[in-house]
Design goal:
Elements: H1 3-31, H2 38-57, H3 59-70, H4 76-93, H5 97-120, H6 123-144, H7 150-158, H8 164-188, H9 201-215, E1 222-226, E2 232-234, E3 240-244, H10 253-269, H11 286-300, H12 304-317, H13 326-333, H14 347-365, H15 374-386, H16 412-431, H17 435-441, H18 445-454, H19 464-472, H20 479-491
Parallel strand pairs: 1-3
Antiparallel strand pairs: 2-3
Bound molecules: zinc ion.
Length: 492
Amino acid sequence: MTPAYRALLDRLRSFTALNKAEGLLSWDHAVMMPPGGGSSRAEACAAVGSAMHALIAGEDFGRLLDAAEADNPRGPVEAAMIRWSRREFERRRRVPPALVEELARHASLSHGIWVEARAKSDFAAFRPALEKMFELKRRQAEALAPSGDLYDAWLQEFEPGMTTGEAAGLLEAIRAGLAPLAKSVLARGPKAPVLSGRFPIDAQKRLGELAVREMGFDLSRGRLDTAAHPFCCFLGRGDVRLTTRYFEDLPFSSLYSCLHEAGHGLYEQGVAPELDGTPLGTGATMAMHESQSRLWENVVGRSRGFWKRWTPRFHEAFPQTRALGPENFYRAVNRVSASCIRVEADELTYGLHVILRFELERDLLAGRLRAGDLPEAWNAKMKAHLGIVPPDDARGVLQDVHWAEGLIGYFPTYVIGNAISLQLWEAALKARPGIEAEIEDGGAPSLLSWLVENVHSRGKTGTAQEIVAAATGGPIDPAAYLRYMTQKYGEL
Ligand code: ZN
């Protein structure tokens, strides 16, 4: 390690420490903070955000970076660290500090406004905050990509290395595959049992914790808490925080959000120790992250093998389910229905919920749609894609936290992650044929070790395309995903 690279790394470590402080402020906001803390938390977030910006956007950082780049040769981690720094530096110095601070402050405030508006299903109360958010994000995109596609600037915040054209191509292939399949399955009508009654939250909590532990999530390096909207907060490989939520009338919701968030959490806990404390000590991209959560939630958690293991546990926790066998549970958790809420959607229609949001974001950006007209446009698209109209805006346009927090350009990564999850699954099965038998015995240690080796340990040293190519031998391709969906839902 040369002195110039050492100086760069010291700066990056300070940046990463502040990034974790910001993450903890956000986790606290969602999990612990009393309602009265909103405005002072917004100030704190804005201050941390601008301190982070100052560390890697100024001319002094440019000089550190130039000096480190001038030192050749270097290893792959050093090369990736410099690549990350160059990209962040270029991105950040283009955005005026006042705009960065305003965005951070507005994101925190608008989150609070969204929580109240959603509770009252009052879009009009959220509309000014949403309009301001899209306006600030448009100014940010114009600063980042003055001549290119503005949506690229948003997408690349979450999916570095992927263009809007590539994402749109993948989503269109997925839509073309899913739409007719969903239509025929929905037309057949549900053949699966619906579990009703009360499912005590204490029992749900025990099962959720058991599930994440059995997957291999290390609770001495993580936590599981309750939040309004489940998420996973990464504070380094030694402190990974999962959240879920509980509904007494829904037996599977908390279990599957635990599997989903723990899939994200395993990724973070599996990052190579030498990357910890640096900007590369985290998951590669949002699509890669979502490939991990969806793999555990759907491919593992909604399999027949999983329900051979979990049926007796449900019988014990919820005695009213004792007449149901593993095949009944398997069908119940894979029940397809046209529903309003994305995070509660089945595996088959989920992709269509995401594609709807991607289409709306692009319409808003292109000026084909105004924020004030969103509820109508949302409902029209729900009708077109899923054949239903939400009964109110809380179950329509207000349901997601993303736009309130400025996470625009994020949605496509969900469905691209689905596609990657099946590519990785096929590659892992080829390398470790015992995985499916292990799922029946609880957890899937061979799957986890394959993922650690081929995905998790690499952290952010490559793009999604690079990691998928190295792990599977091919480019990102929805074929494996569509094959899996067609086979599974054709048979169900
Ligand atoms: Zn996720």
